Amino acid sequence: MLKIKNPLAYLLRMLTLSSALVLSACGGGGGGGGGFSAGTGTTAANSSGTLRVSMTDAPACGFDNVFVTVEKVRVHGDTGVDAGGSGWVDIVVDPARRIDLLSLTNGVLTTLGQTPLAAGTYQQIRLVLAANGAGKVANSVVPTGGVEQPLDTPSAVQSGIKIIRPFTVAADTLTDLILDFDACKSIVTRGNGTYGLKPVVTALPSAVSGSVTGVLASAPGARVYAERNGTVVKASVADANGNFTLSPIEQSSSVGTVDVVIVPTSTNARGTGIIRDVPVTAGGSTALATAGAPITLPSSAFRKVSGAVSPASAQATIRALQLSGARTFEIAATASNLDTGAYGLFDAQPALPAAAPMVGTYQTTLPIPLTADTAAAGKYSIQATSDAGAVSTRQVDITASDLVDQNFQF
Known about the structure:
Number of domains: 3
Structural class: mainly beta
Radius of gyration: 21 Å
Number of helices: 2
Strand content: over 45%
Low-confidence stretches: 1-40
Number of strands: 29
């Protein structure tokens, strides 16, 4: 799906959490003055605003906890400057924060800190994580039902997870920046059963962002995605009562709506739901369902798809896509094993519904009618994208059984 090496970036409003989550951390700039070296950024002379940074997360697949330790957030006006260049402005998190990303779903945010910043346009953000050291596990995962294991963070991650996207700080104004850490797509396995981090992080602007909410009947834990053109722009997971919130979602100037895709777990034994053309309103919220009129999906069998990517060094992202009404929707995604190339679309990644997806178009009157797309039942495109950007696709039909040996060669 998304290129893991080059995450997107954008901005959003900050929601205050309880005192256990909130930390105000001010940082000084590495470059002095307005915090820019010469580059693509521009600043307004003799004026400044304030940048405040928070973090949220999409749902993680197959983990009870995903811990990362944040040391600082850095911003710069030049997309090309490296981590050792001059002109960086840092928000230092002191002491460093160890955060369970899975506590930050359904629109929950945690504040990392804020700093004065010269008014102008900035281009690059870096999220700096602490390294695991002797006797100190800064970053780790707890597989569902398992024990805590270290999460390996390569040196490139420790120098700062690079996010490229312009954002503007106005004079005498507080600008909120939200870093959205997609734990599900960021954690990869190794052949020896250990875990590594290949971060997928975006950032969102509060001034042009909104939310989508809803309630599912009998589908706690269901994955819920906001998508544009088959690409997930925000993900969440339904809570124990079936409630979900997709926030923040950017209100795009070119595409003002999103398609909402609901994928229950095999435990729910319910099929996929798709609601097309859901409007996103900056500063507002769009409701798809309420407790009195929840989204109810019919039962479905679930199937598994597995295989391998060769060579393993391709480090591919695997997506299961489904075509309905001339649109493609992402239903599930996973990453190939870094050492063996193996992948599996199983429950934790998750497995795939075999029943026909239930599809409808947004309307203000609830409930929104959904109709089975019988032509799409059990049919998927399994798409592998290598780390270098090469794409390979296999068409599969899981109506009758699980599928193995769905292999890709790069």
